[in-house]
Specification:
Elements (H helix, E strand, L loop, with lengths): L2 E4 L3 H9 L6 E9 L5 H12 L5 E7 L2 E9 L3 H9 L10 E6 L8 E5 L20 E3 L1 H7 L5 E5 L3 H4 L2 E3 L3 E2 L5 H11 L7 E5 L4 H12 L5 E4 L2 H11 L6 E6 L6 E3 L20 E2 L8 E2 L3 H6 L6 H5 L2
Parallel strand pairs: 3-6, 7-12, 8-10, 8-11, 11-12
Antiparallel strand pairs: 1-6, 2-4, 2-5, 3-4, 9-13, 13-14, 15-16
Helix pairs in contact: 6-7
């Protein structure tokens, strides 16, 4: 596996943090499934064009496409947008989600990696093809179908993502990884095979594969939200539409979550009380479990997930 990692020095981190443009950074998330003949060549191209431009984040490249989330200075938005859209003819229409980064730095360095798949989905007898994916829905159509009894909404994120925020009438396949969720998905949804199934995830990249898998297993009425939750939220704000997503979005960077509404779904792993705190990792390095804990239990257990882990510190 090829890997290029750009580490930002402590001095540069301090400069970034204190810079007057710190509160004017964009978080861009993007993906595109298309055949890349030489991923290594694309990796070096991106390294050359992103180096020394205060671009932070991570980008995954494989022969099946590109997937990334980056934090960029406000004044680099047009440059970066043009750069990614110019990679290939297939990326010209690549949808790029963006949000504004305010209170916490999302990333501290830039990582560009070559992987076997941009989203892991090692399912037997399944070969992903973009020619067999579900129908895209925008926010207008999502809201139109939301209360229709013939439609069912399925959250294609991990359990720890779902527990802090989701479309309030959606269902999810309990799982710790997307790969595990894909393996369970066809059987889990067999009961709903005659309904119209709408899949959604954070930015859309996971749903592309999930809809293709369902079609490969005989499901015909399959849809997914174009650009995922991030795009939906952006559209409901822009067009002043009702918002049916509640709570927070889990994000895979230093922020861990992005608040959408004040609804609180998450519960403390120990006392089961509802709490607005973000996920933490168990302080016991041998456990390192990701979980949510209220302030009282966190003090009592020294930020460990259980008494057993605390006693082994």
């Amino acid at each position: 596996m090829y890997k290029i990692k750009k580490i930002v020095s402590n001095n540069n981190l301090k400069n970034i943090y204190s810079h007057y443009l710190y509160n004017k950074r964009f978080i861009l998330s993007f993906y595109k499934y298309f055949f890349i003949l030489n991923p290594k060549k694309l990796l070096f191209f991106l390294q050359l064009n992103l180096e020394n431009k205060n671009i932070l984040g991570r980008i995954y490249i494989s022969k099946e496409g590109i997937n990334g989330t980056v934090s960029i200075p406000f004044d680099k938005y047009k440059y970066i947008k043009h750069l990614f859209k110019s990679i290939h003819s297939k990326t010209r229409r690549m949808y790029i989600n963006y949000t504004i980064e305010n209170k916490r730095m999302a990333f501290w360095n830039l990582k560009i990696k070559i992987k076997k798949q941009i989203v892991s989905s090692k399912i037997k007898n399944f070969c992903f093809s973009r020619k067999k994916i579900g129908i895209y829905l925008n926010a207008f159509l999502v809201n139109k179908y939301f209360f229709n009894k013939n439609f069912i909404f399925v959250d294609m994120r991990n359990s720890y993502e779902y527990e802090i925020g989701h479309f309030y009438n959606s269902i999810t396949v309990p799982s710790r990884t997307f790969r595990e969720q894909l393996e369970k998905l066809p059987k889990f949804l067999e009961f709903y095979k005659n309904k119209k199934i709408v899949l959604y995830c954070t930015g859309g990249v996971r749903c592309e594969k999930a809809t293709a898998l369902l079609k490969n297993n005989g499901f015909s009425k399959i849809y997914h939200i174009y650009g995922g939750i991030l795009s939906y939220i952006k559209q409901v704000k822009k067009y002043n539409l009702p918002n049916y997503f509640r709570g927070k979005i889990f994000v895979f960077d230093n922020r861990l979550s992005e608040k959408i509404t004040n609804d609180i779904f998450s519960q403390c792993i120990n006392c089961k009380k509802y709490t607005d705190r973000i996920h933490i990792n168990c302080l016991n390095d041998f456990c390192n479990r990701l979980f949510i804990q209220c302030r009282v239990c966190s003090i009592k257990l020294n930020s460990c997930c259980c008494l057993n882990c605390k006693n082994k510190l």
